[in-house]
Amino acid sequence: MKKRIGVFGGMFDPVHNGHLALANTALKLMCLDKLILVPCRQPSHRAACVASAEHRLAMTRLACSGNTKIHVESIELDRLGTSYTIDTLYQVKLSEPSARIVLVLGVDAFNGFLFWEGWEKILEFCNLFIVSRPNVVLDPSVLESTGLANRCVSDLDALFAEDAGSYCYCADVSMNYASSEVRQKLIKSESLDHAMDLTVLEYIDKHSLYTL
Q1: Given a cut of 90, is residue 122 above it in pLDDT?
Q2: Mean per-residue pLDDT over the chain, rounded
Q3: CA distances from 121 to 12, 55, 88, 146, 205 (A)
Q4: For residues 195 and 17, what is the distance between their CA atoms, to the nearest angstrom?
Q5: Domains of the chain (ranges, CATH numbers)
Q6: Where does residue 165 fall: left (phi above 0), alpha (psi -120 to 50 degrees), or beta otherwise?
Q7: Which of 13, 23, 108 lies closest to 70, judged by CA?
Q8: N or C: which end of the chain has fewer CB within 10 A?
Q9: Distances (CA, A) of 54 to 89, 132, 203
Q10: How many CB atoms sit inside 10 A of residue 183's CB?
Q11: Residue among 71, 196, 42 nearest 210 (CA)
Q12: What confidence tens digit (pLDDT) does each residue in 128-176 have?
């Protein structure tokens, strides 16, 4: 059986329990050998990050330190300029040439997939594991334009039967937290005990992040 590797990228500004719920669900449902979390330097389609790359990497590593199957990598932070998922997938494939790779992303991110650099190549490199978000549905026009409309699989083992070009939609987990909302709560000194890992909260306080 080929190795199963998931790739989950994001700003993680800051990392919160919604990210961790998604990561753990992906690991469990797909029986992944490992899940690579990739904090981005600067996405091509979003505003600049609030915290520095170094702080976001450190916080993400703290949050994931208890799970040996989650590997937080600095792939995109080590590259200069804008972060492109296709470049990250190239690097993962180079290091794991025989593995089957699945890109993990929220449904809101997928709905903007046509604006991603090299999205066609991404679908030649891997399959997709798309996770639900509150009040967001899969855009049928994006499914049609990407050629994925008839490539949905419900059997997760079937997702690994081929190298690329299929997707699975997971409605069993929802990222109820948004980093923008978490940042606002941090600015207002509101409680986030149920939204974030305690070690991350302590790190944020120590380095005076997300303050006015």
Answers
A1: yes
A2: 92
A3: 25, 31, 12, 11, 41
A4: 5
A5: 4-176 (3.40.50.620)
A6: left
A7: 23
A8: C
A9: 21, 29, 12
A10: 18
A11: 196
A12: 999 988 888 999 999 999 999 999 998 889 999 989 999 999 986 656 6
- The 3 state secondary structure assigned to the chain is CCCEEEEEEECCCCCCHHHHHHHHHHHHHHCCCEEEEEECCCECCCCCCCCCHHHHHHHHHHHCCCCCCEEECCCCCCCCCCECHHHHHHHHHHHCCCCEEEEEEEHHHHHCHHHCCCHHHHHHHCEEEEECECCECCCHHHHHHHCCCCCECCCCCHHHCCCCCCEEEECCCCCCCCHHHHHHHHHCCCCCCCCCCHHHHHHHHHCCCCCC
Please write the tens of the pLDDT for every residue from 4-34.
999 999 999 999 998 998 999 999 999 999 9
Q: Which tokens in the block code for residue 157?
A: 């083992």
pLDDT digits (tens, 9 = 90+) for 178-210: 888 899 999 998 988 788 999 999 999 999 999
Cis before 14 (ω within 30): yes
